[in-house]
Write a structure and sequence with these properties.
Layout (H helix, E strand, L loop, with lengths): L8 E6 L2 H11 L3 E6 L3 E5 L4 E6 L14 E6 L2 H10 L5 E5 L2 E7 L5 E6 L1
C-alpha cells in the first residue's frame, strides 16, 4: 500500500463563508463545479476539488490561516499582478531560487502563492 495517495479534495472550513467564497471565485477566478448556497461550494483546481464549508460553530483555532499555504504554478506573474491591481487586492512579492513568488491572503488569512516554473 502506498504511503501517499493522490489527493482528490482539499476541504476548508471557513467562518466568513460568503466573503471567502467570493474571494476564491472573483479574485482567483476559480470555476464553481458544485454549490449548496450558503453551506458549501466546490471549485475546480484541475485534478483536485477545493471545497469550502461554512463553519458556523467557529471551532477552528484563531491562528488557522497562518498554517495554510496553497501554491499555484502560473505561466505569467504579470497577468496575475494586473488582475490583483484591478481588484485592489494586497500582495507581496518575494525572491525565491526559482525566481519570484507572489503571495496574497484570503479573507481569513490563508496564504495563496503564485510562482512561475
Amino acid at each position: 500500500m502506498p504511503l501517499f495517495w493522490e489527493p482528490r479534495t482539499i476541504t476548508l472550513k471557513v467562518r466568513k463563508y460568503a466573503e471567502v467564497r467570493s474571494f476564491y471565485k472573483a479574485v482567483l477566478s476559480l470555476k464553481v463545479v458544485e454549490d449548496e448556497p450558503g453551506i458549501s461550494v466546490a471549485f475546480d483546481l484541475g485534478n483536485i476539488l477545493l471545497i469550502l464549508v461554512r463553519d458556523d460553530l467557529g471551532k477552528m483555532p484563531n491562528n488557522f490561516g497562518k498554517t495554510f499555504e496553497m501554491t499555484f504554478i502560473v505561466r505569467n506573474l504579470n497577468e496575475i499582478l494586473e488582475g490583483l491591481h484591478k481588484l485592489n487586492v494586497e500582495y507581496e512579492v518575494e525572491r525565491i531560487s526559482e525566481g519570484q513568488k507572489l503571495n496574497i491572503q484570503d479573507p481569513e488569512g490563508r496564504v495563496i502563492s503564485f510562482i512561475t516554473k
